[in-house]
Amino acid sequence: MITAATPWGAMRGLESLSQLIWGTPARVLVGVYITDWPLFEHRGILLDTSRHYFGVEDIMRLIGAMSANKINVFHWHITDSQSFPLVLELEPELASKGSYGSGMEYSIEDVKRVVEFGLENGVRIIPEIDMPGHTGSWAEAYPEIVACANMFWWPEGAPWEERLAAEPGTGHLNPLIPKTYEVVKNVFKEVATLFPDTFFHGGADEVVPGCWKADPTIQKYLANNGTLSEILEIFINQTNPYILSQNKTAVYWEDVILDSEIKVNPAILPPETTIMQTWNGGPNNTKRLVSAGYRTIVSSADYYYLDCGHGDFTGNNSAYDQPPGTEQGKGGSWCGPFKSWQLIYNYDITYGLNEAEAKLVLGGEVALWSEQANGNVLDSKIWPRASAMGEVLWSGNRDENGKKRSGDATDRLNEWIHRMVSRGVKAEPIQPLWCVRNPGMYQKKEPSECDTVIRFAAYLYT
């Protein structure tokens, strides 16, 4: 018997039941009583579909695997400077001119399929339309509202702090142009209609000073003693009400109030209607956000960025021109090294918080930014590392004595990988197959290549 307060709870119960079945012929554990609920309400995966396009079938396969892992939020980072793949009736040229092509767009019907599939599988679909930074693709349709579009992102001889973008390509919306808000309002209105979830992610990360400073309109504003932070405040003051008017809660990246150079006064983003998502500074920035009263989603790049550790994607990088014997460091990846499942599993997202502050942490999201990822590698980039986060955000990473249980988690994860593969998810292995077929061969205190006993252990969050 499964008893649950909601259909989603019953769905999680059925998933647990399915994991009590194993073997050929099938065997079922009996006499088992499970009381199960999540520690954190927000357990998510962010996928960037701008830098590379992911087909709808890829996205639906991801959502299906998320449901099996009891991960309940798909954060869809739909647009960025590289492409605008979302087809909108109110602003059709954003996709027709800003996408990679007609075969690499998401139609209204595509979005409906994804949203309905998420609903059927207990996964919320939260859209992100990143702005005012990361909007170079908008310039293909509206060049007049985008500063520094289609310029080389890091002018020769310029210091890092004077680059025009966080990475190529360039382009920030210009908050001083009235046309900007006509377009933004149409985008917000239609996206809010397409996605019924109560959260709307407005981005607001990585507003780079060099881009706005390169624009003549903004140069005049600055010459009259204006500041870049004031320009960002103009944008947020104009656009945040659009989000709220659609009965949405606004989600922003931490930069909007924590950036060292361009940020808004937190008073214009009250905690009652605003959620912050942190990606920098590990526990320190989480502490800063919750101390200010904000509900917070943790996506620390030091632990939760799944794209890290694969090297740099720009060419002509001198970091790779090294003589033999040179210490590799991060290997050219700004957020390297690779974030292993163990690193993810052992991260405590409320580290250093008091009880009141910890209650403001809604949960976490692992993130796959797609500079070096597409549908061919989607499964292996995400699974089983996201599974590790899923277990921790559901039931924690410590046993009843407060000791980290990553050793037991290895058993569960190894078995669970095979279950995911049997369901069509091409998850990455975490140990040699020999370890699975030779249980008990490595039961030493000192770590070894196969340092756990591989035995049947259903992937249960109890």
Mean pLDDT: 92
Helix content: 25-40%
Order of helices and strands: HEEEHEHHEEEHEHHHEHEHEHHHEHHHH
Total helices: the number is 17
Q: Can you tell me the residue ranges where pLDDT is under 50 for at least 5 consecutive residues?
A: 451-462
Which strand order do you get reading across the main beta sheet? 3-4-5-8-9-10-11-12
Coarse shape? globular
End-to-end distance, in Å?
17 Å
In terms of DSSP E residues, the strand content is: 5-15%
How would you characterize the largest beta sheet? Answer: 8 strands, parallel, barrel
Please report the total strand number as a whole number: 12
Protein structure class: alpha/beta
- Radius of gyration over C-alpha positions, nearest whole angstrom: 23 Å
Structure description:
With 462 residues, this protein is an alpha/beta fold. The longest helix is centred in the middle third of the chain and has 18 residues, at 228-245. Mean pLDDT is 92; it is low at 451-462. Helix 2 packs parallel to helix 4 and helix 5 (178-194) runs parallel beside helix 8 (228-245). The strands form three sheets. It has an eight-stranded parallel beta barrel with strand order 3-4-5-8-9-10-11-12, surrounded by five helices. A two-stranded antiparallel ribbon has the order 1-2. It has helices at 7-18, 56-68, 92-98, 108-120, 178-194, 209-213, 216-223, 228-245, 255-258, 282-291, 301-304, 341-345, 355-358, 378-382, 385-395, 406-422, 433-437, and strands at residues 21-22, 27-28, 42-48, 73-79, 124-131, 146-147, 172-173, 199-203, 249-253, 274-278, 295-298, 361-368. Helices cover 34% and strands 12% of the residues. It contains 17 helices and twelve strands. The chain is globular, with a radius of gyration of 23 Å. Strand 3 (42-48), helix 2 (56-68) and strand 4 (73-79) form a beta-alpha-beta unit.
